[in-house]
Amino acid sequence: MTTIEHVLGDITNQNVDVIVNAANSSLLGGGGVDGAIHRKGGPEILAACRELRAGHYGGGLRTGQAVATTAGRLAARWVVHTVGPVWSDTEDRSGLLADCHRNSLKVAAELGATSIAFPAISTGIYRWPVDSAAKIARTAVEDAEIDLIRFVLFDQATYDAFTRP
Ligand code: APR
After folding, report:
1. Could you give the CA distance from residue 38 to residue 81 in angstroms, rounded to a whole number?
2. pLDDT, tens digit (0-9, with 9 covering 90-100), for 116-137
3. I want to staple 76 with a disulfide (CB 3.0 to 4.6 A). Which of 19, 72, 103, 152 is the partner?
4. pLDDT in tens, 74-128
5. Structural domains in the chain, sorted by start
6. CB of 130 shorter than 6 A to ligand 1
7. 14 pLDDT band (50/70/90 cuts)?
8. 19 touches 76 (CB < 8 A)
9. How far are the Cα atoms of 14, 20, 32, 165 from residue 59, in angstroms, in the given order?
10. Which residues pair with 116 in a beta bridge?
């Protein structure tokens, strides 16, 4: 039985096994939640990302894919980096946004994680409308088998969108 929670707060403070990062394909950091995770988690995370880029992820991480690294100084055990789709008015990329959630859950399960925290992927710099993202996220995780899924929303409007029935 999976418990799904919604909290208004900072994902870098979450004491869960896996914190999901809304990264970009370079895996080398950025703004938003990516910046917060690297800032709070420390250089070990970036070092692990650089190793991924030097190895299997030479070309970077594709949109919708997910990969784990150490969580560095964060309370979590791992960070799972995923690349959300940039919002498009002309192309339906909702499958890719759903993939971010499903692939992050898959990586978390492979690690043996029992709890995972998601930010509102793609709804910041990538401009995905929050109501749409909330629906896609909710559907994408509905058949998850992990004990705890926590959506950590950074502002009230996003929290309201994710908790609206
Ligand atoms: N905790 C939780 N949520 C956060 C935090 C935080 N510390 N900081 C930002 N957010 C929220 C934003 O308010 C937004 O609701 O995360 C959501 C996703 O926004 P972004 O971080 O901008 O991510 P995204 O829209 O997926 O864009 C990804 O931004 O940071 C860069 O390197 C990243 O290029 C990539 C792009």
Report:
1. 11
2. 999 999 999 999 999 999 999 9
3. 19
4. 999 999 999 999 999 999 999 999 999 999 999 999 999 999 999 999 999 999 9
5. 3-163 (3.40.220.10)
6. no
7. very high
8. yes
9. 30, 21, 23, 40
10. 18, 149
Residue type, 122: S
Rounded CA separation 97/75 (Å): 26
83 in Cβ contact with 64 (< 8 Å): yes
DSSP symbol at 11: G
Residue 60, ligand 1, Cβ within 6 A = no
**pLDDT value of position 22:** 98
Helices 156-163 and 130-140, axial angle in degrees (round to 10): 50
The two three-digit tokens of residue 94, written as one number = 């909702």
The best mutation among 5, 7, 33, 152 to test binding of ligand 1, ranked by most ligand atoms within 8 Å of the C-beta, falls on 33
49: its two tokens: 């990302």
